[in-house]
Design a protein that fits this description.
The protein is α+β, with helices and mostly antiparallel strands. Strands 1, 2, 3, 4, 5, 6, 7 and 9 form an 8-stranded antiparallel sheet that branches. Strands 8-10 form a two-stranded antiparallel sheet. The radius of gyration is 19 Å and the shape is globular. The structure holds biliverdine IX alpha.
Length: about 325
């Protein structure tokens, strides 16, 4: 496509008031995930002193090239939260996306709250987790510290939110034993089964945050920061939403949005590159393998048992 016209239309460069279909009253159209966003913002604000995370005013609501899909973005911070950010894509009946994450301040080894919901009219691809900062298979102390008490909570929800079949095998190192990975067919299931799980997982995370103790030395802070940087580079480089965001908003704008907003910190929390952390993705010419996965898709069943023990060989 013609790059000059792409830049001309680049949403970031537009003054909000010049976007033709900008509607300041976003509440009027109730998206599938509007209640989730409202709950989360209220719940977080009630549990800690938040302030806005500085983002350009023009980023808060952006209209896609199709003239109807809207991307709502918002972000906050607090003493223990480096970044609480919400991206909500409203494409009407055919597409709804909620991508919410809370990244702790690196002075805390807290998990990363992760809600990643992609919905079309007929299917809902759901990841809900408190993503571990440290792989729980290799770091038993971390698993015990944050997840041991939550196994019964997970067991309650996975009855109605069963394992969503095969997934990119590499993702598993970023998932916890309490991850909810599911595919649903009905909006009703999203509202009745997923929404309560979302609420409880957020509340559990906020409780963890209240109780979190600050790292006792700078090595610990550096270690937490490096773990978060590695996570951010994984997601910023391999996000399954990238092709869709490219189509809707153009490549240049999408790359900015992924790097500076969705996975803010990917270029600032460390100097390592994606290939430093994930050398198996290096191509012969030194570039990053474009495939999302080297291993392929696997895990047809939940790889943890009802006690949260990993039961499958990698
Ligand atoms: C699919 N999203 C998926 C899948 C996972 C995730 C596991 C299933 C496909 C797969 O196995 O990879 C989510 N993967 C994650 C998360 C982590 C991870 C949260 O590794 C954390 C470490 N997704 C988005 C956004 C959009 C989006 C913003 O985050 C859209 C704008 C869409 N996700 C999306 C789509 C699919 C998907 C379209 C299905 C396409 C596919 O399977 O590649």
């Amino acid at each position: 496509s013609d790059s000059s016209s792409r830049y001309h239309c680049s949403p970031l460069l537009l003054n909000v008031s010049s976007v033709p279909f900008f509607t300041p009253d976003a509440k009027k159209c109730s998206s599938l995930y509007a209640d989730f966003v409202e709950f989360a913002v209220r719940e977080v604000a009630e549990s800690t002193q938040v302030s806005p995370f500085p983002i350009q005013e023009g980023l808060k609501e952006v209209l896609a090239y199709d003239g109807k899909t809207k991307l709502h973005s918002n972000a906050f911070q607090s003493s223990k939260m480096r970044l609480f950010r919400i991206a909500n894509l409203d494409g009407g009946e055919n597409m709804q996306v909620l991508n919410m994450a809370i990244f702790p301040n690196p002075e805390y080894d807290l998990p990363i709250f992760c809600a990643d919901f992609f919905s079309t009219a007929t299917k809902h691809i759901i990841v809900l987790d408190l993503n571990p900062l440290y792989d729980t298979g290799k770091n038993k102390w971390y698993k015990t510290k944050y997840y041991a008490d939550l196994i019964p909570v997970m067991n309650r929800y996975i009855k109605l939110l069963p394992w969503g079949q095969r997934l990119t095998a590499e993702s598993l190192q970023f998932f916890s034993p309490i991850v909810i990975w599911t595919k649903l067919e009905l909006r009703q299931e999203v509202q009745e089964n997923l929404f309560p799980a979302f609420k409880e997982y957020l509340q559990v995370w906020l409780k963890m945050m209240e109780n979190a103790e600050i790292a006792s030395n700078s090595e610990e802070v550096q270690r937490n920061q490096r773990a978060q940087h590695r996570y951010l580079l994984w997601r910023a480089t391999k996000d399954p939403g990238r092709p869709l965001l490219h189509r809707l908003f153009g490549e240049a704008w999408c790359e900015m949005y992924i790097k500076d907003f969705l996975f803010n910190g990917a270029t600032t929390l460390g100097t390592e590159t994606f290939l430093d952390y994930f050398p198996e993705y290096r191509c012969a010419d030194g570039s990053i393998n474009k495939e999302r996965s080297i291993v392929g898709k696997s895990y047809v069943k939940r790889p943890w048992d009802e006690h949260g023990n990993f039961t499958m060989a990698i």
